[in-house]
Backbone:
């Protein structure tokens, strides 16, 4: 699949998902790869062609970003989409380039994985979208002193920002920072327990840190799963059965990888009910095999929406509300 194919199919899939009431479309961001390395053009195109679906990322790699320019882009997209943005960001996943963010001009990290500069940038980004002054005004141009905020400003944007957490410790940090949390299909730690139990503990620690920090309101928590209802022989050939959790090494960490769910709809309903992290989260993101095309992926989403989600008490998007089963 070419980059053009990937981008155009992402738009068409999101339009069709919006039509059937899927709640969100989130895209992974990787650099030096033929996919969504620059998500804002894609998300803007989707926002312009849809009415209800939430658009976002899972996640933007902050090591590669200018936090103030990112604040401008984020606020602009949130205004264009009428508050339908749900932007996930974090240190990011391993990339094909060795410390590729340094080629983008972002040097000075003392962490071999660049986590320190990612957190510093995130803190500045949050200040900027909150409307704090970040640059000294030129009195000759403005007739005033003091600090200027980044423009445009999108009120309430802070409530639609997520941190992609890959461990229990980073979940606690996200809770302290007062942002929503995305948790993926892997955690960069191994505690000798099933993945869903480790992730449920991660969610609990995040919410406890949020409360301890004194933040108001209820934060959103998402988890990702690969879920494939078996509806016909083609589904069975692609995804004949569920696999199991796995433990392996990624980016130097001994990590726990969540399993794929595949089976008849009633089987999936029971398995998801037994998944303590899915039951603890308020948003389930379905990871889908985009290389199989728009038509097949709409079949997967429709099967989940019609035969699995209602049995779990999840409903399609209505009047722009977001609850239930976004896609990634």
Residues:
């Amino acid at each position: 699949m070419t980059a053009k194919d990937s981008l155009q199919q992402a738009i068409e899939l999101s339009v069709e998902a919006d039509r059937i009431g899927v709640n969100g479309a989130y895209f992974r961001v990787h650099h030096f790869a033929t996919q969504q390395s620059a998500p804002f053009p894609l998300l803007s195109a989707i926002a312009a062609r849809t009415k209800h679906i939430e658009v976002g990322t899972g996640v933007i790699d902050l090591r590669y970003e200018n936090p103030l320019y990112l604040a401008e882009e984020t606020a602009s997209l949130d205004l264009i989409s009428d508050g339908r943005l749900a932007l996930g960001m974090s240190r990011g996943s391993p990339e094909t380039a060795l410390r590729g963010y340094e080629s983008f001009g972002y040097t000075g990290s003392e962490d071999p994985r660049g986590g320190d500069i990612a957190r510093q940038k995130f803190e500045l980004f949050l200040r900027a979208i909150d409307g704090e002054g970040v640059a000294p005004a030129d009195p000759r141009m403005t007739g005033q002193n003091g600090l200027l905020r980044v423009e445009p400003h999108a009120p309430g944007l802070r409530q639609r920002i997520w941190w992609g957490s890959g461990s229990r410790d980073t979940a606690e940090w996200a809770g302290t920072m007062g942002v929503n949390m995305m948790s993926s299909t892997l955690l960069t730690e191994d505690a000798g327990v099933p993945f869903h139990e480790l992730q449920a503990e991660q969610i609990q620690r995040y919410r406890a840190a949020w409360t301890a920090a004194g933040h108001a309101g209820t934060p959103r928590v998402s988890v990702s799963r690969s879920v494939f209802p078996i509806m016909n022989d083609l589904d069975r050939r692609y995804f004949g059965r569920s696999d199991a959790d796995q433990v392996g090494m990624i980016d130097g960490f001994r990590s726990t990888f969540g399993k794929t769910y595949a089976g008849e709809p009633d089987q999936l309903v029971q398995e998801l009910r037994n998944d303590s992290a899915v039951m603890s989260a308020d948003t389930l993101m379905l990871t889908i095999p985009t290389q199989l095309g728009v038509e097949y992926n709409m079949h997967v989403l429709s099967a989940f929406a019609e035969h699995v989600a209602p049995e779990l008490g999840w409903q399609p998007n209505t009047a722009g509300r977001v609850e239930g089963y976004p896609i990634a």
Observations:
- Residues 3-312 form a domain with the TIM Barrel fold (CATH 3.20.20.30).
- The chain has a mean pLDDT of 90.
- The chain has twelve helices and 13 strands.
- The longest strand covers residues 221-229.
